[in-house]
Amino acid sequence: MSLLDRKSHTRICTCMLGATLLACASSPGSTEGGSTGGSSTGDGETDTAATGSSTGDDSLSPTTTSGDGGTAGPTSSTSDGVTGTTGTTGTTTGDPDSTSDSGSTTSDGEEEPPSTTFDERLCTLFVDQFTGKDGNSGAAKDQALATIKAATGIVAAGDTVCVYPGDYGAFKNTAHGTADARIHYVSVERWQARVTAPTIPLQNVGDYVDIDGFEVTTTEESVGLGISNGDGKLANHCRIFNNHVYGFVAKTRGGSGGAGILSAGWVADKPYQGEDVEIFNNFVHDIGNPGENAGFVQGIYVSHPHAKVYNNIVYNVSGWGIHGWHNANYVTVSNNLTSNTNGIVLGNGDSPCGQITCEFTDYYVTNNILYDDRNGIQLYDGPNHLIANNNFYLTEPSGDNATTDDPQLVGYALDPGGDFHLGPMSPMIDAGSPEHAPAIDFEGKARPKGAAPDVGPYER
């Protein structure tokens, strides 16, 4: 286990860039001199987000799923099945997105490849660049809106906003769902609704919101931030999943910071105190300036308590593949794959430490593959930590039951054509820990299939 001494590492600063707070350094910093900063949404909104709560349970299941749900990975095929969520009743038809209180997982036709098409019967608002008009009601396919931005002006708790293939500009959700009526923004065909902007394409500052299945990139050299959750408002109980986020580089060298996916949990009077956010089944790559400014732009970054980061594929990142800092406690990082990144680091410090008591407790890092990363896994010392059953191929190992074997991926390549499934003889099959393992894999299939979970984002 690699444990960091708080006093021996340079500080992480907090930069204001536009309306977004960005992580500005690659490694954990001391609590001395931490920047507190301030944040504004830029639209004159006041904070209405609830503080929320988290159960802190071990399950990483996005509540109730079926084995044929979710979305396919970069190389998987489609089927004729349909996936989705009602957004109002808490039931599902296969999408890893539900508000059921059961927390259970069912398996139903799990050997079939998952569908990449959302069930249109679950849509309550429709967006179609080619057939829609922003003057329409959006309540039916033949009354579709033309832009996602228009949908954000009328969306309400319980709505499922179905976005059809097209190139869309930036959008920002400010509406709140509820525990029983989430707001769900979904690309009807996985990665075919493309959200682009020269700055920050996709922002959410609402509670109980899901961002599902979008392609998120930039039109030019940018601030280095793709999806931003909870900056200016806390944005609790949110889920960011099934997205393809890539191509964000830092326009300003030397400290602008950024991330492919950021969950900040930040408002001026409650800095980094958002919670209960899940980031899973995302494909994140080519973030930052590889070879330059290493460590200033992260793949996935969380800075608040009660975050779960699982089943993500992250590669070609200047900084850390997965990074937790500021007030990141009770964080679970399981069954991810990182490659050509600084690896995984979890700690806390800087703002809000000093304003509030920053614990460093309850970190669970299990079943991840770190494939030819520049560093391995680094954690600050503290109670209730677990680093176990991670695979470090061509990477410095740490933790319990660490392995350094070649995971024998089907087609390792650091491009969208790479196939990160485990090969039939992979030593990572059934080699994971059941503790904190997600109940689904990258494709939404039930886990485990064998005696124990597989290591990495796919369950063979």
UniProtKB/TrEMBL annotation:
Gene3D superfamilies: Single-stranded right-handed beta-helix, Pectin lyase-like. Residues 53-66 have a biased composition (Polar residues). Keywords: Signal. The keyword Repressor does not apply. Residues 26-120, 429-460 are annotated as: Disordered. This is Right-handed parallel beta-helix repeat-containing protein. It comes from the Bacteria. The keyword Transferase does not apply. Residues 73-107 have a biased composition (Low complexity). Residues 31-41 have a biased composition (Gly residues). Residues 1-25 form the signal peptide.
